[in-house]
Amino acid sequence: MEVIVSDTPQESARLAADVITALYRDKPDAVLGVATGSSPVWVYDELGRRVGAGELTMAAGQAFMLDEYVGLAADHPQRYRHVIDRDFTAKVDLPADRVHGPDGLADDLAAACAAYEDQIREAGGVDLQLLGIGTDGHIAFNEPGSSLASRTRIKTLTAQTRADNARFFDGDVDAVPRHCLTQGVGTIMDARHIVLLANGRAKAEAVHHLVEGPVTAMWPGSVLQFHPHVTVFLDPAAASRLQLASYFVEAARGKPDWQGF
């Protein structure tokens, strides 16, 4: 697991965008896994800037969303399809019809989950998956206690996650859906490269368990310790609980081509 502590979230986002840019230069039809939440937005802004400047094209690629709320109206602004369209697709040159997500309005949700797994597989799998992490250690919507071998399925959101997401619903926790469709931990682990971003002191405990704790379903992100290629970008606040935080900072400063340590 590569851990890079940057001075600011914006610097972490620039480094993450470097990784994605390199991927698309080497593989123009790459499959990107996209995430919602606050952490990836600066990455999407930087990718959009590079596309606009002619430094990057993603036009031949595909993207797959991590998750979707169940039951939100098709025109609801917090439906994740709309969030990704606004925060990511509208900023880059990847065609909207090549950005895929699970169907939270399907009549048969279990069948929709199985179909989504098939769609990812038929695309050749995800080359690079962007992730954030919840304060309770969840990745995507795989809450504490989730099976570490799980596939795309319906999940009940915890009270903590609904409280954390209430800020996107004008602070009204009752407006946050209780269920979602989410890629499973096993689905995420199939990605060939995982890039996770975390910022702020509120994420410090989850980051500690992610990087240095035992692997346990109570902190689902900890399973990434078993993945062969994970890069974690942190700001100093998110890294503040790491026993090796000072090493990661010094390593990042001393090694411009930080990949590999």
UniProtKB/TrEMBL annotation:
A Pfam family annotated for this UniProt entry: Glucosamine_iso
Gene Ontology annotations for the cellular component aspect, listed alphabetically: cytoplasm
Site location (Part of the allosteric site): 146, 153, 155-156
Record entry for activity regulation: Allosterically activated by N-acetylglucosamine 6-phosphate (GlcNAc6P).
Catalytic reaction list: alpha-D-glucosamine 6-phosphate + H2O = beta-D-fructose 6-phosphate + NH4(+)
Catalytic center residues: 67, 136, 138, 143
Native source species: Enemella dayhoffiae
UniProt-listed GO biological process terms: carbohydrate metabolic process; glucosamine catabolic process; N-acetylglucosamine catabolic process; N-acetylneuraminate catabolic process
HAMAP family with a match to the protein in the record: GlcN6P_deamin
Pathway annotation: Amino-sugar metabolism; N-acetylneuraminate degradation; D-fructose 6-phosphate from N-acetylneuraminate: step 5/5
Family of this protein: Belongs to the glucosamine/galactosamine-6-phosphate isomerase family. NagB subfamily.
Keyword Glycoprotein tagged: no
PROSITE patterns, per the entry: GLC_GALNAC_ISOMERASE (PS01161)
Family matches, as InterPro entries: Glc/Gal-6P_isomerase (IPR006148), Glucosamine6P_isomerase (IPR004547), Glucosamine6P_isomerase_CS (IPR018321), NagB/RpiA_transferase-like (IPR037171)
Alphabetical UniProt keywords: Allosteric enzyme, Carbohydrate metabolism, Hydrolase
EC number(s) on file: 3.5.99.6
Superkingdom classification of source: Bacteria
Molecular function terms from GO: glucosamine-6-phosphate deaminase activity; identical protein binding
Protein name stated in the entry: Glucosamine-6-phosphate deaminase
Function per UniProt: Catalyzes the reversible isomerization-deamination of glucosamine 6-phosphate (GlcN6P) to form fructose 6-phosphate (Fru6P) and ammonium ion.
Glucosamine/galactosamine-6-phosphate isomerase domain sequence ranges: 11-225
